[in-house]
Specification:
The chain has four helices and 30 strands. The protein is mainly beta. It has a single domain, classed as 7 Propeller (Methylamine Dehydrogenase, Chain H). The protein has a six-stranded mixed beta sheet, covered by helices on one side. A five-stranded antiparallel beta sheet has the order 1-20-21-22-23. Strands 4-30-29-28 form a four-stranded antiparallel beta sheet, with no helix packed on it. β6 and β7 form a beta hairpin.
């Protein structure tokens, strides 16, 4: 399963709703966070070099150019989301491959009481956007609304349970009868921390107590991890919540950089001065690989082995072009990606064999996700109403 980074910055509109400015939220990152961040970067660079996207690239550098060939035969390509007035902005596969949960934002908000910002003694009005969660059964094409107020859905590893956040509450649902209830875990309603709270496949919640304080696995006795997040940082957690893939934003003299915080406390360096790459990371923890695009005069896709630290380019372009929507197959053998800016034209969807044996363009599309068995690709297209429409492609 591929894990993608979540961006807390998307909370900006929600914070503004009740008079709390983005500046208020961002200002809660104290000077100690900047010092910690600079120290982390220095310690990380001491362990090994980071790819630097601002470093000059030789014009003679050899590009990774897999041969274009048919890797898959397209058996079926069908629209799955209904043509209604909703926009389904995100989707999550069940690990059994028989269902998908879609997220559909609404115009409603939930107000939360007792939110505290930089000054712990001052409470501020605070609200979050409400999202509908819809359960789509692939074989029988059934749609079931799970809730009108949920976010960040994630399946358990056996697919029998779905976890999600409802406001600050952590919710558990039985996927067989759609009954759900609070688990008793709650995200802290402090600063913009609520937007960092991330459920995991093992029924945990990963979150800091406050911006710039260490990230913790809530509800356990585990020690706090080394990551200290500012408002514009992004991260994704492993299923057990003990490893974090973090992209730190620029802070003062410290450039943006990305690292993997391992469960044993060690840190694996990835890259620096690559803010675009930091928001496009794809991670397969079980296969110990991370894939990401590098935007430059000759854009490329790189893959890093998180066990050995070995890194290689698997695709190189002759020109600067956006590569986005990376998804690693569960077996770690294939990478789906999109090339091109859909806002300026179209994005074409391709599949790359990570052993270098070839690549194939499939169709136009973006935000592709492999099914757990690698036989299907769920992807989005821009519909006639400019809303996202989701399609399911069956491959052989």
């Amino acid at each position: 399963m591929t894990y993608r980074l979540l961006h807390a910055g998307t909370a900006a509109a929600w914070l503004l709703l009740l008079g709390t400015s983005v500046a208020d939220a961002a200002s809660v990152s104290p000077a100690r966070a900047a010092d910690t961040r600079a120290s982390l970067l220095a310690a990380t660079e001491a362990r090994g070099p980071l790819l630097d996207c601002q470093a000059p690239v030789s014009a003679n550098k050899a590009l990774a150019k897999p041969q274009a060939r048919r890797l898959f035969e397209i058996q079926r390509d069908e629209l799955v989301t209904p043509l209604d007035d909703k926009e389904y902005t995100a989707a999550v596969w069940s690990p059994t491959g028989d269902a998908v949960v879609f997220v559909a934002p609404t115009n409603e908000i939930r107000q939360l009481e007792g939110a505290r910002l930089a000054d712990p003694s001052v409470e501020r009005p605070f609200a979050v956007s409400k999202n509908e969660l819809w359960f789509y059964g692939i074989e029988d094409h059934t749609w079931t609304r799970i809730t009108e107020d949920g976010s960040s859905p994630v399946f358990s590893e056996d697919g029998e349970t779905l976890y999600f956040m409802s406001g600050a509450e952590h919710i558990v649902m039985d996927t067989r009868d759609f009954r759900w209830a609070p688990t008793g875990l709650e995200s802290p309603v402090t600063d913009a921390v609520l937007f960092f709270a991330q459920p995991t496949a093992r029924g945990l919640v990963v979150s800091p107590e406050r911006i710039a304080e260490p990230v913790k696995v809530l509800g356990t006795a585990s020690k706090a991890m080394g990551a200290r997040l500012a408002f514009s940082d992004t991260f994704v957690a492993s299923p057990d919540g003990r490893s974090l893939l973090v992209s730190y934003s620029a802070d003062g003299d410290t450039p943006p950089f990305s690292v993997l915080h391992r469960a044993d406390g060690s840190v694996l360096p990835l890259f620096k001065n690559c803010p675009y790459s930091g928001h496009q990371l794809a991670w397969n923890p079980s296969r110990e690989i991370v894939a990401y695009p590098v935007l430059g005069p000759r854009s490329e896709i790189r893959v890093k082995d998180t066990a050995s630290g070995a890194e290689r380019a698997v695709l190189g372009l002759d020109q600067a072009d956006k590569i986005h929507g990376l998804s690693l197959s569960a077996d770690g053998e294939y990478l789906a990606f999109s090339q091109g800016d859909h806002r300026e034209g179209s994005s074409r969807l391709g599949v790359l064999a990570l052993d270098g044996s070839g690549m194939q363009w499939l169709t136009e599309g973006l935000m592709a996700q492999w099914s757990p068995d690698g036989s299907r690709l769920l992807y989005a297209v821009i519909g006639a109403s400019t809303r996202l429409e989701w399609r399911l492609m069956t491959l052989r």
